[in-house]
Amino acid sequence: MGCKPTKNGKSLDNPHDQPKITTKVDPRILQKYEIQALIGTGGFSKVVRVQHRATGQRYAIKMIETLNPVGQDTCERELQVLRRTKHQNIIQLIEVYEGSDKRIYMVLELASGKELFERIISESFDEKEAVRNIKMVLQGLAYLHNLGIAHRDLKPENLLYSHEGRDARLLITDFGFAGRRTTGGSEFTMKTACGTAEYVAPEVLLSIPYTVGVDLWALGVITFILLCGRMPFDDENKMNLYKKILKADYCMEGEEWESVSDNGKLFISSLLELDTKKRLKASDALNHAWIIEQKANFIKRTANAKSIRRTGSGKSNESSKHSNESKSLTSQNRRVRAKELDELLMYYRYGDKE
């Protein structure tokens, strides 16, 4: 949620005081930037909103603890991506500091609008608005995939609006799980088990080499949520959830789907496709009839939207992830883990496959 502090230090959008940062910060940062508020936290990072002392421009600074090997790996992955990218739908890296306190300070473009997640649960959409949002994500993905980069953790919590206006750009953020092409060639495969359970592609669950197509599967899940207000695959038990994903066991029937166009449903089906060779690529998806036609019919999705559960951890750039909505699922217990996939494969190898 975009936070607008008043004179008493409270957000106009949030009745609670904005969290203050108590962590010591490298003096070089303090010399150049005034720290205004703590706006996000993660397992190995904190995000603060700052103002450049000379220009008055506001930015976000992501402070990452690198003493922990996981934090260091996450930081390296994110920097490897952000140093290569410059696109209107990808969060922009401004500069980087290596602190004497063993932290990395990433100065980032400030996304002062809400997360896509928060707009889903708080606002109604017509299909034209849904298309506008998905098109922006596709443009960012097409750019990344052309560079040989896969996001691998695409979800509404990692999609932030540049500001609160209706014409805001939607920005892809959080590249801590990104995979990169390390050798030549337009096609490359990855093997690491990662991502968030509700959005993970079936080929990741099967522990087979996968491609950037995993991002398109995740976008199919996001589009499904955007159009009907609920998850296509939903179960708090992760093993049951994975079994549904492996069968592409989702349904586009019921009252909430009556007003969704046939092209919208076909678009989702072309992304939630088990056969990776048939699944649309980002560049092809941009030319899909649903994206091109942009129908403006209202969709009945708001009644279910409040029931969507958050899978994020609070690593937002500006958007507030401190709400009381949907705290039953945290990012840590919804992470895809290799040990779980070993158990899943054992089930399919020796257990009941029905």
TrEMBL record:
Q: Which Pfam families match?
A: Pkinase
Q: Does the keyword Cytoplasm apply?
A: no
Where does the UniProt annotation place the signal sequence? none
Ligand binding (ATP) = 62
Q: Which UniProt keywords apply?
A: ATP-binding, Kinase, Nucleotide-binding, Serine/threonine-protein kinase, Transferase
Basic and acidic residues composition bias: which ranges? 13-23
Where does the Protein kinase domain lie?
33-291
Source organism (scientific name): Oikopleura dioica
Region annotation Disordered: residue ranges?
1-23, 307-335
Q: Which domain of life is it from?
A: Eukaryota
Task: List the protein's name.
Answer: Protein kinase domain-containing protein
Residue ranges crossing the lipid bilayer per the database entry? none
Q: Which PANTHER family match?
A: SERINE/THREONINE-PROTEIN KINASE (PTHR24347)
Single GO molecular-function term?
protein serine/threonine kinase activity
Which family is this sequence assigned to?
Belongs to the protein kinase superfamily.
